[in-house]
Design a protein that fits this description.
One of its GO terms (molecular function) is transaminase activity. It holds the Pfam family Aminotran_4. By secondary structure, the protein is an alpha+beta fold. 28% of the residues lie in helices and 30% in strands. Strand 1 (3-6) and strand 2 form a beta hairpin.
Length: 276
């Protein structure tokens, strides 16, 4: 079952009210978030809402409702989906207007859907996923969670066509993040991940993972990994996102990585993350 909300109300089955002149269609002029719920318990909902607010400020767009009201709408949507795990996608566009580039005098619009979340089996997670490396061809403001995702889509498709799960992006010789996730590497007792600057989206799961790493007493360095280091030297690596949590990397291009096991630092981090 999927629940839909648009503008100011939940929709009935079969309704498709989004106008074709909405600036989300014409320009990707908007922002979004994805939140996971386990029954009534959300994962990082407040952090997602705060990032939504920050993204709106970055593109000089007002929110259609206060954050508290958006939270209420999100929770109401979740309550209508009778599944153990529910994912909620919600976006704010600048609204419907004639197709001209400057900001129109319109009211921003909230769109939302809630549906059963994708579940990864422990066997799948333990096996890990293959990744390839590709040039990071996105814009310079990746810290904004905007609707402009075509470069990400192209990178993800290239990974799929190469028989991989994800594309890890390289900017000027340094690992930034992946097409739809953040990237961590582990080597000689230290975890590495790109700092939260304008070149990556500061993922909510990424933030929680940093806490888990520190909770276990590991060293973490928020600094870029060189492509050579990531490709040839890291002992372990993983990607993170709201819907994946932590997903170990089993292969980088043609190089196999160590399998995930109970003694692995990555496995320990995953277990610590689940207790946060």
């Amino acid at each position: 079952m999927t629940v839909y909300y648009y503008k100011d109300r939940f929709l009935k089955g079969g309704e498709t009210p989004v106008p074709v002149e909405d600036r989300a269609f014409n320009y990707g002029d908007g922002i979004y978030e994805v939140v996971r719920f386990h029954r009534d318990r959300s994962f990082g909902l407040q952090e997602h809402l705060e990032r939504l607010r920050d993204s709106a400020e970055a593109i000089r767009m007002a929110l259609p409702f206060p954050l508290e009201e958006i939270e209420s709408i999100v929770r109401s949507a979740v309550s209508q989906v009778e599944d153990e795990v529910v994912d909620v996608y919600f976006q704010i566009s600048r609204g419907e207007a004639l197709r001209v580039h400057p900001f129109p005098q319109t009211d921003p619009v909230l769109s939302l859907y809630a549906r059963p979340g994708r579940i990864y089996t422990e066997d799948f997670r333990e096996a890990g996923v293959a990744v390839i490396t590709l040039p990071d061809e996105r814009w310079s403001n990746c810290y904004i969670k905007s609707l402009n995702l075509l470069p990400n889509v192209l990178a993800k498709q290239a990974a799929v066509e190469a028989g991989a799960y994800e594309a890890v992006l390289i900017r000027d010789g340094w690992v930034t993040e992946a097409s739809a996730s953040n990237v961590f590497g582990y080597h000689d007792g230290v975890f590495f991940t790109h700092p939260a600057n304008r070149h990556i989206l500061n993922g909510i799961t990424r933030r929680f993972l940093l806490r888990a790493i520190q909770k276990l007493g590991f060293t973490v360095q928020e600094e870029p990994m060189s492509e050579e280091f990531f490709q040839n030297e890291v002992e372990s690596a993983f990607i993170t996102s709201t819907t994946m949590e932590l997903m170990p990397i089993s292969k980088i291009n043609q190089r196999e990585l160590h399998p995930l096991g109970p003694e692995s630092p990555v496995w320990q981090i995953l277990q610590a993350f689940r207790t946060l």
